[in-house]
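Example for tutorial group B:
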């Protein structure tokens, strides 16, 4: 399941590439036809992420709320400026054509799939149409003159009012990017301090703290030296504060790099190897049976709340 860093990156992409543009909204799959009709032809005014949810605000007091869930992902295609210029020059509105058989100056569409992980590709060549044909079960397509964003497999995709958006936001716990470190800590402490829920379960409760998923949970508890089955009410305030501070530290790294990185003390070649290899990014997650990087004890795996 995409964790908070991924959704913040997706919202940032919408802010940089789509906000301020009039958007054609459709539902190629057909499961969001009514919602798409409400949003179609409106300007996207803003896009924010809180935890694992994204809220895109359109003119006319309407919001698109998206929760990617386990399988959801956005696929972005961007018509590069030289492609658009070449299409205009050739009189090929809505298409892009290669200026030569080489790649230099050739029109191209860059594509990024953004979900639990991001994958970027570049498509180039002659005769490809813009926008690209929908691939797979596209729940909603947001299209401007140069950006095409396709959403597949979300748990939630709905058009809602500002009041409904506010109600959803009120139910979410603090997010370091939205609340800031100090205010977020106060909210987290007040929500969590007296809960008997095991801390490993509480960190996954989006009403307690927003954005943490299975990977961040396992890694943060290891970094703090806290047993995930410890009732939250038995933790000292400094232990709770250490968890919150670590979330404030790790989330921006994930937003910047696009991957979940929790081995943060590495430098030089070791750091580069870690960024390039999933197997090297974490202390414990995905390493069941392997030796602990600190003490050498084999890492054990247990299920908590179905995860």
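The residue assignment follows.
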């Amino acid at each position: 399941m995409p964790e908070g860093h991924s959704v913040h990156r997706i919202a940032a992409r919408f802010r940089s590439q789509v906000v301020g543009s009039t958007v054609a909204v459709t539902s190629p799959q057909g499961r969001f036809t009514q919602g798409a009709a409400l949003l179609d032809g409106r300007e996207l005014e803003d896009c924010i992420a809180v935890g694992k949810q994204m809220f895109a605000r359109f003119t006319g007091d309407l919001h698109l709320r998206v929760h990617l869930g386990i399988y959801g992902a956005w696929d972005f295609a961007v018509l590069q400026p030289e492609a658009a210029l070449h299409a205009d020059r050739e009189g090929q509105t809505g298409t892009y054509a290669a200026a030569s058989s080489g790649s230099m100056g050739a029109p191209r569409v860059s594509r990024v799939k953004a979900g639990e992980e991001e994958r970027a590709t570049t498509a180039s060549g002659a005769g490809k149409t813009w926008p690209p044909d929908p691939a797979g079960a596209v729940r909603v397509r947001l299209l401007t003159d140069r950006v095409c964003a396709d959403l597949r497999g979300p748990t939630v995709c709905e058009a809602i009012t500002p009041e409904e958006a506010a109600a959803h936001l009120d139910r979410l716990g603090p997010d370091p990017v939205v609340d800031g470190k100090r205010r977020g800590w106060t909210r987290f402490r007040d929500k969590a301090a007296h809960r008997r829920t095991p801390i490993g379960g509480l960190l996954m409760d989006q009403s307690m703290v927003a954005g943490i998923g299975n990977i961040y949970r396992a890694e943060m508890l290891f970094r703090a030296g806290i047993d995930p089955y410890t009732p939250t009410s038995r933790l000292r305030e400094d232990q709770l504060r250490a968890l919150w501070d670590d979330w404030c530290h790790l989330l921006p790294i994930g937003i910047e790099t696009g991957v979940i990185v929790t081995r943060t003390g590495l430098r030089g070649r070791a750091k580069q190897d870690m960024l390039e290899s999933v197997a090297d990014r974490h202390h414990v997650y995905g390493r069941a049976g392997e030796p602990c990087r600190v003490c050498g004890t084999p890492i054990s795996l247990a299920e908590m709340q179905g995860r």
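DSSP finds ten helices and twelve strands in the chain. Compare this with the pattern of hydrophobic and polar residues in the output above.
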